Amino acid sequence: MSNITIWLDLDPDKVDVSYLQNKFKEDGYNLIAEQIDFADEDKTIEMGMKADAVISSSEPWNERTLSAVKGQVKYIVRYGAGLDNIDLPFAASVGIPVGNVPGANAAAVAETALLHILNLGRRFTTCVDGVSNGVWPSTVTGNELDGKTVGLLGYGNIGRQLVRMMQGFDVNVLVYDPYLRDRSDANDRLHFVGSAEEVFRASDIISLHIPLTDETHGSINKEKFALMKPTAYLVNTCRGGVIDEADLIEAVTSGEIAGAGLDVLVHEPPEKDDPLLHLPNVFVTSHMGAASMESEYRSQVIIAKCIEEYFAGKMPYNVKNM
Question: Is 93 helix (H, G, I), strand (E, B) or coil?
Fold first, then answer.
């Protein structure tokens, strides 16, 4: 029996982690599946000190927590693509490689972005709520997606999946990604532009697909909203922190933009009195973008394989702080 212990920061009653449970049992690893509060540094340290490897959800891995588990935790792999809860350079400095599962949930998140895009135009959820409350007809005369320009900020795995899913619509797609080198996808409906400002000026719907970094934090703000058409919508399925939410609230309440669909917020869960939850032209879902049965399975297969490789003496391909 192996002495290796894995801490999984997820609640198995809320997420089906049976693949990981069965695989690690087969490998002889001890799995501790216990979800903690996303901001609890003390509990992060406590759980980390029990583990040789961590499957990370949203717990804070910063200088304090990483220093405390140095020598105990050998490898951290994020259950998802985003790594904004982990200080990658500091993890490297204390000898802890950090990986993720890029692309595993791309289709699921792209579907969620498309759902928000369609809902903003047709107000599907408004109609459903109205019928549930006895309002018939509960019809909102909305806008079709056909004929619109959709702007993507960021063109990674999720952005590419969203473009694929929109192929059945008569849409023009504008993309800005300053780090993109291969632009061979360009065609008569998909155009790469030279600045984010071009995307904000020309688009009827803007969908955000950028990582949360020091550079992008709060970068979607009043300057960007001022460029948008008053009929345009904003969709965010990446990270809440890329938006200045006070500026967004001002933009949607003043009519500077038509509305927003958000799967992510700066503070999760939000306070009950958060204005974004009570605006008729803002639709918020509970960071559910990646939560499909298929994406969960793909993620767990990748995670299990990478952990096996690490403890077999190989450096997994997904390490981001080599």
Answer: helix
Cβ(66)–Cβ(85) below 8 Å: no
- Say if 5-102+292-311 and 106-284 have the same CATH topology: yes
173 to 154, 193, 203, 261: CA distances (angstroms) = 12, 10, 8, 18
Contact 17, 42 (CB under 8 A): no
CB 220 within 8 A of CB 250: no
Nearest to 34, CA basis, from 52, 56, 18: 56
* Residues with a known catalytic role: 239, 268, 287
Domain 5-102+292-311 -> CATH class: alpha beta
Determine the residue type at 137: P
pLDDT in tens, 17-27: 999 999 999 99
Of 56, 54, 93, nearest to 73 (Cα)? Answer: 54
Q: 180-198 burial, b for 16+ CB within 10 Å, e for fewer?
A: eeeeeeeeeebbbeeebeb
Calculate the average pLDDT of the chain. Answer: 96
Model's pTM, two decimal places? 0.88
- What is the tens place of the pLDDT at every residue in 53-92? 999 999 999 999 999 999 999 999 999 888 999 999 999 9
CA distance 92 to 212: 19
- Domain ranges for the chain: 5-102+292-311, 106-284
| Closest to 258 measured CA to CA, from 227, 293, 278, 234 | 234
Query: Quick one: which of 307, 308, 311, 289 has its CA closest to 99?
Result: 307
**Number of helices and strands (H, E) in the chain?**
11, 12
CATH code reported for the domain at 106-284: 3.40.50.720
176 φ, ψ (degrees, to nearest 5): -125, 120
